[in-house]
Write a structure and sequence with these properties.
The protein is of the alpha/beta class. It has 2 domains: about 170 residues, Peroxisomal Thiolase, Chain A, domain 1, CATH 3.40.47; about 150 residues, Peroxisomal Thiolase, Chain A, domain 1 (3-Layer(aba) Sandwich). Helix content is about 30%, strand content about 25%. The protein has 10 helices and 13 strands. The strands form 4 sheets. The protein has a 5-stranded mixed sheet, sandwiched between helices. Strands 8-13-12-11 form a 4-stranded mixed sheet, with helices on both faces. The radius of gyration is 19 Å and the shape is globular.
């Protein structure tokens, strides 16, 4: 019997828009201060997409970087999976737009919508496509233009979000290959879906003058409730990932969490017993970029030498849905 196919991350890329929105800029827009924002979130600045930049426009340079890093062409791909909650349009998918820009036809291309957990959800799909033999190489992209659905009159939410894209190539690999995906876990709790939501624009509340006037096409969240749920679930996911791979916290070289809030990351790391020196943090420079936070952080960690051959890294996310996900990769 032939050995089971394995999947590995073979390429990484990212893209950040040029425009920077600082806390000082926000002080001129709403009643807030740099000290208030940094104390509560850890964010100093965030990147903002240009008016004419859609999700696929951010995804394109990140995807090209990942393909180059993997040493393959777009024509080698067997699939494109895009994670986003800010698609170019409801349909066709952002992945299809990206496929056209990459000239990668006719590979299957589709979106995954799992809010801030979307990248690891999409990574799990790409991994499954490779392991099943459906594809040898899958492009997994997370791209967000959250500034376009952020209410910049709401001082509690407008401080949080930024725009970015991150990409990886998932390829068939031998056991023990660099970047091998060892374990993936996904979960959701729809009973708590109201904690983070974009109320209007779907079939439940189609766009009307009333929904626009009531500002229902912007992100809404219940901060304290989300904080408590996020810390609990992140601890559970990291613990599950470690135990499933027969590891200890000492065996983990780097945790790459969803960059939601620095206080959430610190509280989670403390409860699971992992020092912050092992937790990758870039929320101070980019804010919460939704599904894109993990692949952007992964690319930075790889580029800056924070991941070395043989290192064990854990991805962990939490987002609207409610959704959560985790992944263990041996670099």
């Amino acid at each position: 019997m032939a050995s089971q196919r394995r999947a590995a991350i073979t390429g990484c890329g990212s893209y950040l828009p040029d425009k920077v929105l600082t806390n000082a800029d926000l002080e001129k827009m709403v009643e807030t201060s740099d000290e208030w924002i940094t104390t509560r979130t850890g964010i100093s600045e965030r990147r903002i997409a240009a008016d004419d930049q859609a999700a696929s426009d951010l995804a394109l340079p990140a995807a090209r970087q990942a393909l180059a890093d993997a040493g393959i062409a777009a024509s080698d791909l067997g699939g494109i999976v895009a994670a986003t909650m800010t698609p170019d349009m409801i349909f066709p998918s952002t992945a299809c737009h990206l496929q056209g820009l990459l000239e990668a036809a006719p590979v299957p291309s589709f979106d995954v919508m799992a809010a801030c957990s979307g990248f690891v959800y999409a990574l799990g799909v790409g991994q499954s496509m490779v392991v099943s033999g459906l594809a040898d190489h899958v492009l997994v992209v997370a791209t967000e233009t959250l500034s376009k659905i952020t209410d910049f009159t709401d001082r509690t939410s407008c401080i949080l979000f930024g725009d970015a894209a991150g990409a990886t190539v998932v390829s068939v690999a031998e056991p023990g290959a660099p970047g091998e995906i060892l374990y993936t876990t996904l979960g959701a709790d729809g009973a708590n879906s109201g904690s983070m939501t974009l109320p209007a624009g779907g079939s439940r509340q189609p766009a009307t003058h009333e929904t626009v006037d009531q500002r229902l096409h912007y992100i809404q969240l219940r901060g304290r409730e989300v904080f408590n749920l996020a810390v609990r679930k992140i601890v559970e996911v990291i613990t599950e990932c470690i135990e499933a791979c027969d590891l200890t916290t000492e065996d983990v070289d780097l945790v790459i969490p969803h960059q939601m809030n620095l206080r959430i990351m610190k509280a989670s790391a403390d409860r699971v017993g992992i020092p912050m020196e092992k937790v990758f943090v870039n929320i101070d420079r980019y804010g919460n970029t939704g599904a894109a936070t993990v692949p952007v952080a992964l690319h930075e960690a790889q580029r800056d030498g924070q991941l070395k051959r043989g290192d064990t890294t854990v991805f962990v996310t939490f987002g609207g849905g409610l959704t959560w996900s985790g992944c263990v990769v041996r670099w």
